[in-house]
Amino acid sequence: MKELRTKFVCIELNDSGTCKKVLPCVNLTDSEYNKLLNESLASKQHGLAKAQKQKEEIEKLDTRINKHDMLLAKSIFDNFVDRGLIEEDDELQQSFYDYIFNNKNDRVFHNEFFEKILDKIRGN
Q: Residue 106: its pLDDT value, please?
């Protein structure tokens, strides 16, 4: 006996061609269809805005973590200088002063020991 088709559905397929989602289908008027399209676009835009906000938050957190890494590395460097294990570096001191007080983030700290400490803090 032939099986009757009694369900009218929409099927969303995944990349492998198998069923990802099954949705019921309904007949709509043009105005209902347009309203649902607008709701769908608003939902998509809300999702994009949320993703953008998350991206901005991640960038802010990354910046803060980098600043903390720099402060911790400088503290360890100064500790080694105080204990006489490494030499004082006036250029590094000035660069760090500018980094903290003059907001000059473009200064690169060229000191072998400082770079090694920073790499260790960052897990490299």
A: 59
- Does residue 84 come out as left (phi exceeding 0), alpha (psi in the -120 to 50 range) or beta? left
Token pair listed for 86 = 């490494």
C-alpha pair distances (Å), 93 with each of 10, 84, 109: 66, 16, 9
Structure pTM? Answer: 0.63
Cβ distance 92 to 111 under 8 Å?
yes
- Residue pair 73/114 in contact (Cβ under 8 Å)? The answer is yes
Which residues are CB-contacts of 59 (< 8 A; sequence separation ≥ 6)? Answer: none
Q: Which long-range contacts (CB under 8 A, 24 or more apart) does 8-14 make?
A: none
Q: CA-CA distance, 26 to 16, in Å (whole number)?
A: 27
86 with 46: CB under 8 angstroms? no
Query: Does position 1 have pLDDT exceeding 80, yes or no?
Result: no
Of 10, 41, 34, nearest in space to 24 by CA: 10
